[in-house]
Amino acid sequence: GAVVSQHPSRVICKSGTSVKIECRSLDFQATTMFWYRQFPKQSLMLMATSNEGSKATYEQGVEKDKFLINHASLTLSTLTVTSAHPEDSSFYICSAPQIRDTQYFGPGTRLTVL
Amino acid sequence: GDSVTQMEGPVTLSEEAFLTINCTYTATGYPSLFWYVQYPGEGLQLLLKATKADDKGSNKGFEATYRKETTSFHLEKGSVQVSDSAVYFCALVGKTSYDKVIFGPGTSLSVIP
Predict the structure, then answer these.
(1) B28 vs B95, more confident
(2) For A82, phi and psi rounded to 5 degrees?
(3) For residue A24, what are the β-bridge partners?
């Protein structure tokens, strides 16, 4: 069964609003989680590393004020897309390492900004 | 930096055909290697992995062997099914990259009856 869950699976919002996406590890603790973005027919692009108890680490070119990450507990990380615009529409996927080297991925969240 | 290259798709095969998707990597040291599969509209699922040279990962009829000498991790399946239609990503985790996954561009596979 799934070891990482995401909520919601789909969200449609108006331009200018903020959207929060949750990523949970099921039955295991994750001090680190990762957030990816995937454009249609493209590979996954790592956006940031979410660290429990400390600030997230963002990849080059990712706006930290735009994509707020909070690792609230050992099983929950949230990504908030602030003041969303149509160009933020994408498929967002989180992952967590359950065992060394191996990431388990959430099912993804499809964000559509109108 | 570390990187993964894989054959561009889309790949279209008839059911029961043999599948090969090439994957090569560049990394410092000896990374762990993975194949992930993404079915339409879904997230990624781990298909198989290998953590050291000459290891063979296998799952659901798919196989890949970690070849250090050619820095490759080609995915193979002897007889594909329609249900194997998906996008396949080759990926690595470097020994110094703190669990960051580096993905290849993905290869789309369509299997027709």
Answers:
(1) B28
(2) -90, 145
(3) A5, A76
Q: State the pLDDT confidence band at A98, using cuts at 50, 70 and 90.
A: confident
Tell me what pLDDT residue A1 has.
57
Which of A44, A36, A31 has the alpha carbon at shortest distance from A6?
A: A36
CA atoms within 13 A on the CB side of A20: 7
Q: Which of A7, A26, A39, A43 to mutate to test binding with chain B, by most B CBs within 10 Å of its CB?
A: A43
State whether B43 and A103 contact (CB < 8 Å).
no
Q: What's the token pair of residue A72?
A: 């609230």
Give the pLDDT of residue B43.
83
- A91-106: buried (b, 16+ CB within 10 Å) or exposed (e) per residue? bbbbbbbbeebbbbbb
Task: Give how far B28 is from chain A: nearest CA, Å.
Answer: 15
CA distance A37 to A91: 6
Measured between alpha carbons, how far is residue A90 from residues A40, A47, B11 in Å?
A: 8, 12, 24
Is the peptide bond prior to B10 cis by the omega test (within 30 degrees of 0)?
Answer: yes
